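hi support,

uploading two proteins for the ticket. first:
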Amino acid sequence: MDPTFGVSAPNPNVIEEDLNQLWQSVYENSNRVQKLEEQVAEVQKYYSTINDQVNNAKDKSQEKHVIGTKRSRQGGSSKEANSSNTMKEVMHQFSTIFHQASYSKV
């Protein structure tokens, strides 16, 4: 009786070629992920800078206008909510791009 059950041994050249293609794909995807991480860091830095500027402007506004502080606080919180929603949107878009890049064929 044949111990291989009619299955021939795999060709070592084919296996090596497949492994090389796999490693190349892993390398390229790793580079893509690194670039995307750098872009996310830039976006986070940008929005944190804007948030700091908004907070500084809001603080100055509250110092100058003691009367009507309730209105300026409400306006500030809506701006913060808008920037928070914008950040969530950007992160969602990044997530979509990341998944597309991760699953695309090389």
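and the second one:
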Amino acid sequence: INSLTTAFKVESEYQGQIYNHTEGYIETLGCGTQQEVDQYAVVELGRNVEKIYVRLDARGSSGDAAMESIQLFAREDPTVASQLPFTSAPGTAWVVAEEEPADHFEFDELQVHGGGGLSFEGEGSRLSVDTVSGDHTGLVSMREGQMFHAILNLTSS
């Protein structure tokens, strides 16, 4: 190998058990990360974790491993229907019953634009919307045991 590159692998730890998420090291030679904007690797863990390990391996003659940046997106447990103290999903709003527990949320219209997102709280909750519209970039997240009833308007607004 004439080029100096860094291979990587991703592992996580949960309750003392180590999980490998990349099946060994991933080679970066020729992947375009040095020449092209917004070229990056995505590794989805898809599980509960207590620790994340990103292990680097220098390839080439220098022996030095390098990584420019890393982004971590944590998200709550999809099997839990309540809002947790954090969420990193960009542009996500939550519908939460503040006064008293509610299991049925009703709206005349829901518009989701610009990659926005909507989640709602409550085990067994139902969301009823007369009309849903947007620019086809948004996301409405449903949890286990929740129901969503809507009339979709498939035209952009």
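thanks. also noticed: The longest strand covers residues 5-14.
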